[in-house]
């Protein structure tokens, strides 16, 4: 861990230059020992990999299918949902659906036309992977949906997902021609485009939403419709864990419409429909943001984090206009700015952060010149303990993840070292 912190402070040094790092006197930066970080490791074969933090990991498939996640591990236990009896378009693992065509996921039957997993950020403060995928309808070879699914992971077990799914071809097709199974249920006879997460039913016991707490939903039971957040609890009595879900609230509507939680024989699905019940499928383009939060302090703590993501607080940088985090990755400054690159431009002296944020958070900063290292202070003083984690993106650009909340009376200054 000490070496990881040293590499964060001296970003140009690689493993082969460890001796040079020690010899060039990087000790001018105060020691910083984070409790934990996140990292990404490619698999040896197959094009997948694993993004991991302390006590949790998201595994991306190596198999012949799409490199969507095929494992969500909490304390070494895989809690991702799988259903051997599912229909070809039913929810399974993590993926996308264009019902009644085959599911787009690690084990789905949708044809693989494009399938590239790109590690965009490798930690220690943030890991981000982008899956570039493409498929083709068997009912009409001109229709070739594609897009990206981006997963951004933080050290506290927050995983933000952003999906883009589109098909620019305007040729109309009828759902009856594209059914991947016969006979088909009446509810699935029309086009539905959706994004989903699933969890293993046997690993969880209770589901909470609003002020309700109940057993996990029975097979076929749909609950928590159009709720921004929900929380599910599992594990052993001596080592329990929670997973909260959040669907950001759009400015144009008070609720995240067309979201639902539904029970299946061996899994629980968390779904958002982007198109529901279309009689035809013309050209389309959709985006969707969602997030999960792995927690061990109870659903109350998980809801606090999830609610902050669903309806995020504003952050002010250098007395500028209040800003919200990007729905693409949950990072303040994560949206592309001038020149098409992410990052908030800050002056040579650094960035002053102010606001009232109810959860951990990350900022993406772009300095006017190359910066070898950065440090953060709280109300003008160093803060005891590992409360922030810097990550160098390039010579001028850094991401800083902050472990704690920030109140209206606090001011964080991030400056070059």
| CATH architecture annotation of the largest domain | Distorted Sandwich
Q: Quote the distance from N terminus to C terminus.
A: 21 Å
**Structural domain tally:** 3
Strand order of the largest sheet: 7-8-9-10-19-16-15-12-13
Enumerate the spans where pLDDT stays under 50 for 5 or more consecutive residues: 1-33
Number of helices: 3
Please report the first level of CATH classification, the CATH class of the largest domain: Mainly Beta
Give an account of the 3D structure.
The longest helix has 12 residues, at 299-310. A hairpin with a 4-residue loop joins β9 (146-153) and β10. The protein has 3 domains: 1-33, no CATH class; 39-309, Beta-galactosidase, Chain A, domain 5 (Distorted Sandwich), CATH 2.70.98; 312-416. Residues 1-33 have low confidence and may be disordered. With 417 residues, it is mainly beta. The strands form 5 sheets. The chain has a 9-stranded antiparallel β-sheet with strand order 7-8-9-10-19-16-15-12-13, covered by helices on one side. A 5-stranded antiparallel β-sheet has the order 1-2-3-4-5, with no helix packed on it. The chain has 3 helices and 27 strands. The protein starts with a helix and ends with a strand. 6% of the residues lie in helices and 40% in strands.
Features:
417 residues; mainly beta; Beta-galactosidase, Chain A, domain 5; 3 domains; 9-stranded antiparallel sheet; 5-stranded antiparallel sheet; 27 strands; 6% helix; 40% strand
Summarize the structure.
The protein has 417 residues and is mainly beta. The chain is built from three helices and 27 strands.
